[in-house]
């Protein structure tokens, strides 16, 4: 029995040494580990620190996790933070095209901007070229548009459109065809259904306010269908297209309102529109 244990121990030590002295094999193993674990493993040895800190390894790690479906957002960042540097792209656009350059969406190696005319622009990063895509939407509501929320999930562009009505808790979700040929209507979501699930939500109490804000899109854990996340009356809730149901992701707590114009007790989250951005854990330094 002792001899067997000794042999097993020697085999394990031999395997460990083989991995330790084979940098290519070690790199392939490290590529498959979660981001937080790799940050801790920088302290294991100078060799591990050198590998994990290498910019090419950081990029390969992010691409590996993205292509294998392991990369998912762990936070949402609000546009209030001044923590991003600006990269300037110079070009001229006719004002009549009504393109919103404040909030770009990166998808499939391209930066897209939301437009309110018939077309909008996107920038192909690798080829450094500007191209157009349609922004005409199928008419779904007998009311003027109020706001468009632009986003992406799993390489597909999505658009949420709210409408200007005295009481309107509904908004439409559109999906862009993968060949960028047209927008397709996906579903009309109703916050009234969310109130049935979460009766503590006080929505629809202010005329001509949509009752929610900060609409964004994130990928589901297992399926290709997205989740639509929004802020409603101090709660972060989402509609899961896979399950066809509203869920509560997080409760910000009493008195904590994002996007309010005033600090009084009657403040509501939906007084001010804002955009949120997905945060993905990665090894790259910003």
Structure characterization notes:
The protein has two domains: 66 residues, no CATH class; 205 residues, no CATH class. Strand 10 and strand 11 form a beta hairpin. The relative contact order is 0.12. The protein has six helices and 14 strands. The termini are far apart. The longest helix is centred in the first third of the chain and has 20 residues. About 5% of the residues have low confidence. The strands form four sheets. It has a four-stranded antiparallel beta sheet with strand order 2-3-4-5, with no helix packed on it. It is α+β, with helices and mostly antiparallel strands and 286 residues long.
Can you summarize this structure?
With 286 residues, the protein is α+β, with helices and mostly antiparallel strands.
Features:
2 domains; F-box_dom; four-stranded antiparallel β-sheet; 286 residues; At3g26010-like; globular; 6 helices; alpha+beta
Overall shape: it is globular
The unreliable regions are 258-270
**Going across the major beta sheet, what is the strand order?**
2-3-4-5
Helix % is: 10-25%
**Terminal Cα separation, in Å?**
54 Å
**Domain module tally:** 2
Series of H and E elements? HHHHHEEEEEEEEEHEEEEE
The count of DSSP E runs of length 2 or more, i.e. the number of strands, is 14
The major pleated sheet works out as: 4 strands, antiparallel
Structural class: alpha+beta
Q: How many whole angstroms does the radius of gyration measure?
A: 24 Å
Q: Residue-averaged pLDDT, rounded?
A: 76
Specify the number of helices: 6
The share of residues in extended strands comes to 25-35%
InterPro entries: At3g26010-like, F-box-like_dom_sf, F-box_dom
Domain F-box: 21-61
Pfam families: F-box (PF00646)
């Amino acid at each position: 029995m002792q001899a067997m244990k000794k042999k097993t121990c020697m085999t394990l030590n031999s395997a460990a040494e083989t991995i330790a002295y084979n940098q290519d094999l070690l790199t392939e193993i490290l590529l498959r580990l979660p981001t937080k674990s790799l940050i801790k493993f920088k302290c294991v040895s100078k060799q591990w620190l050198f590998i994990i800190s290498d910019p090419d390894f950081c990029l390969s790690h992010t691409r590996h996790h993205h292509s294998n479906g392991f990369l998912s957002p762990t936070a949402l960042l609000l546009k209030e933070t001044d923590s991003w540097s600006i990269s300037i792209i110079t070009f001229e656009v006719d004002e009549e095209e009504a393109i919103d350059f404040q909030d770009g969406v990166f998808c499939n190696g391209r930066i897209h901007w939301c437009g309110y005319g018939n077309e909008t622009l996107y920038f192909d990063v690798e080829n450094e070229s500007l191209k157009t895509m349609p922004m005409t939407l199928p008419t779904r509501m007998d009311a003027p548009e109020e706001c468009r929320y632009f986003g992406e999930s799993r390489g597909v562009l999505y658009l949420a459109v709210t409408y200007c009505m005295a009481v309107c808790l509904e908004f439409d979700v559109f999906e862009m065809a993968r060949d960028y040929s047209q927008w397709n209507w996906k579903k009309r979501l109703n916050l009234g259904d969310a109130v049935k699930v979460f009766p503590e939500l006080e929505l629809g109490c202010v005329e001509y306010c949509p009752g929610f804000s900060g609409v964004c899109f994130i990928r589901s854990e297992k399926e290709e269908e997205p989740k639509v996340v929004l802020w409603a009356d101090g709660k972060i809730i989402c509609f899961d297209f896979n399950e066809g149901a509203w869920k509560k992701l997080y409760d910000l707590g009493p008195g904590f309102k994002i996007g309010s114009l005033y600090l009084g007790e009657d403040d509501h989250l939906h007084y001010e529109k804002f955009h949120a951005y997905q945060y993905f854990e990665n090894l790259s330094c910003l």
